[in-house]
Structures are given as C-alpha cells and as structure tokens.
Design a protein that fits this description.
This protein has three helices and four strands, in the order H-E-H-E-H-E-E. It is of the alpha+beta class.
Amino acid sequence: MAPDTQVLTFVLGGLTENEREQATNAVQQLMQRELDRTVALLVDLGGETADDDDDALVLFGRLPMGPHPDRVQFRTDRLSDIPAVLAGAEVTDLGNGLSTVRW
C-alpha cells in the first residue's frame, strides 16, 4: 500500500435502511468530488466481508476469499489495472467516473 493511501471505514450497523442509503450516497458524492484521489467504494451491508479481504480487493486487486461486498465501485479509468478482479464480473459504467462491479 502506498504511504499516502488511506482506507476509510464507516460502520453503519444500527442504522435504518434509509439511513444507510443516505450515508452511502454521501460517501459516494465525496468520492466523486475527490475522484482523482479515490480507489474504490465497498459497501458490505451485512458486515460479512473480512477487513483483510476488502483491503486485498481494493489495494491489491485480489478477489475476497470469502463473501464479496454487496456493492463495489471502482474508478472507471483504473479498471484495466485490476484484470483478476474483473474476470467473470459484470461491470456497469455509472457515467460519473465510477463503475459498479458485481460477481
């Protein structure tokens, strides 16, 4: 991991579905404003993805060994950097500099 890389984690347990969606949307808006410094957004509503699997996915381009996050968005211009992650995945360009990846 680069020395200037920061992984931000927001725990949304205890929030209603509407509150979780509002929080997720707020983080996504922040990402869009800071797109040049953003790597990815992972949303794991059930808390089932291990933290080290999340880090491996975002920082090193490796798929999680266990459950996958519910939602993963990468910068569209960096998708070619993670071919192993994209293998067998459905990629949707959101048109805002981000693409959603689902397996």
